[in-house]
């Protein structure tokens, strides 16, 4: 049936064009952001009509952004916080997931239920005592409140438990036969097998840490300790719609690391999003 | 052989088992300590604070709850939160579903579209909102397109209704990629045999979509709706970025979490803020319960 084939091809072509138009609409704000960031005069008045090719191309806004140390400082803060947060949250999820998968101990069901229950408690309900607690510890305006809570990674723990559940039981038996203790078995036999799930969890918690906003907004006032989103939001709040060029250069630079991470690991990220979304939050 | 060993080392094995019991708690130590410090304690302390007032934490019974529920600002914040979230879901879920269906029907380049549509969701809401502050500028692209289509120029962030629609447009754009990814995962879970069987019976692609795809997706779309609702009730960053601490203009972008934030950290009224936080918590629990029911029904 050549007629059917042709019709099928035509429909596919229409769908392809439609999706391309829609995808361009989705990407347009970013393209426009970059274009404005490359216009020096955008700091005086918004370029009108909107254009994607800068009218007076210049690196002025980027030079300004990098000559001022504040953005680099914010990058550094965000990176340090993210590295520790990812390490702690992935580490505690792997340890806990392994215990719930292979362990045999009193209160296992109750403890697992407790971990699941923490997923239902919104952060906003805990916000004020979290602040007063870190305040009493003298840790406001330090990086600690942004790092330490990452030890709780309930979703990660559930995902690692499921991952360990799929691995053959024989692994542990043979390691034990060789006289290895639980920790040795865990580190030398199981951890090397956790590549895919570790990558997924690391990306998820990196995104969480890098994008987090309300909690840093509460615990950080010090200009030198601001994370990238805090720095961007305070800059944009202080300047309103003035300095659109510099603001868009800052926005571009704040998106760039995450965009690169996303493009490099898109397969993992898209899969982990589907996974976390199906499990609920 | 193993029987003999059990007999010989029976006692030793029991001791070893007990030892290995204890070691599992060491594995769980980081998680359990974290839950105790950052979940259980704050949850209880928040409940306690919600019955107190002032710097000396005077016990006031349920006065804070009564005050929150009698506050017009609170109810306006609830209204704003619900308004933005309802339209966000009603727009993003059907459109995301349709786009996912289109992407799923392509044999090639579906991965490219997945990535392109997901990019906004991969960026932080703060950066996305910063860009949208400029998009919604009176001389920005959105007005330019609106004027090309013959509409009046709108100063988006100056009127309560248009400001909320600014937030809705931002949140739909930012969330759409997530909806598409979830829908694609669920579309691919529909057994291919359904389509093959109906093709033999001579069903057209549209009939297949309407009779197989849509009924099979109702369940996961419902779950997506509840998930989006729970997330939407906690919205803060988008509204805060567009409207500031007070949710300007005229508090039209003041959300429930914004209320908690403003009373707690703007006014140091921990009691009022905690009471509002607990009211939000109860609502979220109800919807989480509905969601687990839906997940169990597996419709």
Structure at a glance:
The complex is a heterodimer of chains A (281) and B (299). Chain A is an all-alpha fold and 281 residues long.
Structural notes for this entry:
Chain A is mainly α and 281 residues long. Helix content of chain A is 74%, strand content 0%. Chain A has two domains: 2-57, no CATH class; 66-278, Orthogonal Bundle (MetI-like fold), CATH 1.10.3720. The model of chain A has no long low-confidence stretch (mean pLDDT 89). In chain A, helix 3 packs across helix 7 (154-166) and helix 12 packs antiparallel against helix 13. By secondary structure, chain B is mostly helical. Chain B has two domains: 2-49; 65-298, MetI-like fold, CATH 1.10.3720. Chain B has helices spanning 2-8, 10-49, 63-70, 72-105, 110-122, 125-135, 141-148, 160-187, 192-200, 205-233, 237-243, 256-266, 270-297, and strands at residues 52-53, 58-59. Chain B has a two-stranded antiparallel ribbon.
């Amino acid at each position: 049936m050549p007629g059917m084939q042709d019709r099928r091809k035509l429909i596919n072509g229409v769908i392809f064009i439609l999706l391309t138009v829609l995808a361009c609409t989705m990407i347009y704000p970013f393209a426009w952001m970059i274009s404005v960031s490359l216009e020096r005069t955008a700091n005086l008045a918004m370029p009108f009509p909107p254009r994607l090719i800068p009218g007076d191309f210049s690196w002025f806004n980027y030079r300004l952004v990098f000559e001022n140390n504040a953005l680099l400082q914010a990058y550094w803060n965000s990176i340090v916080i993210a590295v520790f947060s990812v390490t702690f949250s992935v580490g505690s999820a792997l340890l806990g997931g392994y215990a719930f998968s292979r362990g045999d101990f009193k209160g296992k069901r109750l403890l697992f239920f407790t971990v699941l229950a923490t997923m239902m408690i919104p952060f906003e309900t805990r916000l004020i005592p979290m602040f007063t607690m870190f305040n009493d510890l003298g840790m406001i305006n330090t990086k600690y409140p942004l790092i330490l809570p990452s030890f709780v990674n309930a979703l990660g723990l559930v995902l690692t438990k499921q991952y360990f559940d799929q691995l053959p039981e024989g692994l542990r038996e043979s390691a034990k036969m060789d006289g290895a203790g639980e920790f040795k078995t865990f580190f030398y036999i199981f951890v090397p097998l956790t590549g895919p799930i570790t990558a997924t969890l690391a990306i998820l918690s990196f995104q969480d840490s890098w994008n987090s906003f309300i909690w840093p907004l509460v615990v950080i006032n010090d200009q030198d300790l601001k994370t990238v989103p805090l720095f961007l939001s305070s800059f944009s709040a202080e300047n309103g719609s003035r300095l659109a060029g510099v603001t868009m250069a800052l926005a571009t630079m704040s998106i760039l690391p995450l965009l690169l991470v996303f493009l490099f690991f898109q397969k993992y990220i898209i899969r982990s999003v589907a996974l976390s979304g199906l499990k609920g939050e | 052989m193993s029987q003999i060993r059990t007999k010989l080392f029976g006692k030793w094995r029991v001791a070893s088992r007990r030892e290995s019991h204890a070691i599992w708690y060491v594995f769980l130590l980081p998680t359990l300590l974290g839950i105790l410090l950052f979940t259980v304690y704050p949850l209880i302390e928040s409940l306690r604070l919600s019955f107190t007032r002032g710097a000396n934490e005077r016990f006031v019974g349920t006065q804070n709850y009564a005050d929150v529920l009698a506050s017009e600002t609170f109810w306006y914040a609830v209204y704003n939160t619900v308004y933005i979230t309802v339209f966000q879901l009603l727009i993003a879920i059907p459109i995301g579903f349709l786009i996912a269906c289109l992407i799923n029907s392509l044999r090639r380049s579906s991965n490219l579209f997945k990535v392109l549509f997901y990019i906004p969701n991969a960026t932080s809401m703060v950066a996305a909102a910063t860009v949208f502050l400029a998009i919604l500028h009176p001389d920005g692209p959105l007005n330019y397109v609106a004027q090309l289509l013959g509409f009046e120029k709108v100063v988006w962030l100056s009127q309560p209704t248009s400001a909320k629609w600014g937030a809705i447009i931002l949140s739909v754009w930012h969330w759409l990629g997530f909806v598409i990814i979830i829908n694609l995962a669920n579309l691919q879970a529909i057994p291919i045999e359904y389509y093959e069987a109906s093709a033999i019976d001579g069903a057209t692609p549209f009939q297949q979509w309407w009779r197989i795809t849509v009924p099979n997706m109702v369940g996961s779309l419902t779950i997506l709706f509840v998930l989006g609702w729970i997330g939407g009730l906690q919205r803060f960053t988008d509204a805060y970025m567009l409207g500031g601490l007070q949710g300007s203009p005229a508090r039209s972008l003041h959300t429930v979490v914004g209320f908690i934030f403003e009373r707690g950290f703007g006014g140091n009224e921990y009691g009022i803020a905690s009471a509002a936080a607990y009211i939000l918590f109860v609502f979220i629990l109800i919807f989480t319960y509905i969601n687990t029911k839906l997940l169990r029904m597996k419709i």
